[in-house]
Amino acid sequence: MRSFLACTFTAILTASASGAYAQPYDHLRCFKIKDSTSFTAAVDLVPLHEPPFDLSAGCTVKVRSRELCVPVEKVLGDTNAPSLSITGQDLENAFLCYTVKCVDDSLPQSLTMSDQFGTRQISGVRSSKMCAPAIFGAPPPTTTTTQPAGTPRSCVDATAPACDGTCGDQNFACVPDNGACICDGVDVFFPCGLIQGPPSCLGSCDGQHSCVDEGGSCACALVNE
């Protein structure tokens, strides 16, 4: 599971929606913001598209967001730009974007990219921002439920897709993978139930607890054999 997302942005054009058919919410509109917090975090960024990008280990994130990006539907009006039929997936959550610094020794010198405004060459690729999924308001409280004493179920002994075993580490979550359950890295910023709710609860818990569906909500519970 990839906890953080490195974002690329498509230009947003404002146009009249009269007579247009529905478009997916596959664009991001970003706003400059002021954040009252100020922290730092070290992260490894694992690219979905590898190549042309490689793993960037030990990046430094300044945890003081500079931009808020929200999904929007774009209705294109008059333009003299090229036009291609390229559609993305519907986006559901907002993103907060942070300054990130990485030691990028193997970034591509140039890339050929295509979007709804045509195909072109881009260059000067360098690390700049990292955008993390965000929600409006505070997350629901996470409760911890202790079940009867026994031996905690190991993740490898759980049955997919429930995967209600423990990984014994808050930095890992028990997740389904090709019909089995494995321990996969999950960022500590994403607690149980924040990024995926019931019935397929996902997120980090302390110690031996697992993120499971407890009566219709996600909770950190001790699942015993």
Structural notes for this entry:
The protein starts with 26 loop residues before the first strand and ends with a strand. The chain folds into two domains: 27-134, no CATH class; 138-225, no CATH class. It contains no helices and twelve strands. It is globular. The strands form four sheets. Strands 1, 2, 3, 4 and 7 form a five-stranded antiparallel β-sheet that branches. Strands 8-12-11 form a three-stranded mixed β-sheet, with no helix packed on it. The protein has a two-stranded antiparallel ribbon with strand order 5-6. A hairpin with a 2-residue loop joins strand 9 and strand 10 (180-185). By secondary structure, it is an all-beta fold.
Helix content: under 10%
Distance between the termini: 26 Å
Total number of distinct structural domains: 2
Largest sheet: 5 strands, antiparallel
DSSP strand (E) fraction? 35-45%
The parts where pLDDT drops under 50 for at least 5 residues are 1-20
Work out the radius of gyration. Answer: 21 Å
Helix and strand succession?
Answer: EEEEEEEEEEEE
Structural class: mainly beta
Number of strands: 12
Shape: globular
Mean pLDDT across residues: 77
Count of DSSP H/I helices: 0
- The oligomerization state is single chain
